[in-house]
Amino acid sequence: MNNFIHKHWCGEYSLARAYWVNGITIDCLTLTIAANVGTSIKYLGEDRESILVLIYFLGIVLNVWQTVGIWRSATRDGGYWAQAAMVSLVFDWIRVIGVIRSTFH
């Protein structure tokens, strides 16, 4: 597991694997888990906000790991798809910041 995490972080995977497997697939699984946790978290009352902070923190850590690995793979591969992947990462961070702002605003 550590080797997988390290190889992605260093950009050693191909851009296709880094983007589609380590980015999109893991993101979809994470969002599914977060949605399920989110439906049951509403019953916690006052403890809800502290758990939300933890969930968002873990999500940001995961997003940083994904972004760094995909960015490094794109930099190494180069070309049109690498540039498209980099642009999509920028839009993903805009989305993440918007979700966090709307949640805690």
* Count of DSSP strands: 0
Radius of gyration: 15 Å
Order of helix and strand elements from N to C terminus:
HHHH
Stretches where pLDDT is under 50 for at least 5 consecutive residues are none
Q: How many separate domains make up the residues?
A: 1
Strand fraction equals: under 5%
User: Which structural class fits the helix and strand makeup?
Assistant: mainly alpha
Briefly say what this structure is.
With 105 residues, this protein is an all-alpha fold. The protein has four helices and no strands. The chain has one domain (2-104).
How would you explain this protein's 3D organization?
With 105 residues, this protein is mostly helical. The chain has helices spanning 2-9, 15-41, 48-77, 80-104. The protein starts with a helix and ends with a helix.
Write the layout of secondary structure elements.
Elements (H helix, E strand, L loop, with lengths): L1 H8 L5 H27 L6 H30 L2 H25 L1
Helix pairs in contact: 1-3, 2-3, 3-4
Keywords for this entry:
elongated; 105 residues; 4 helices
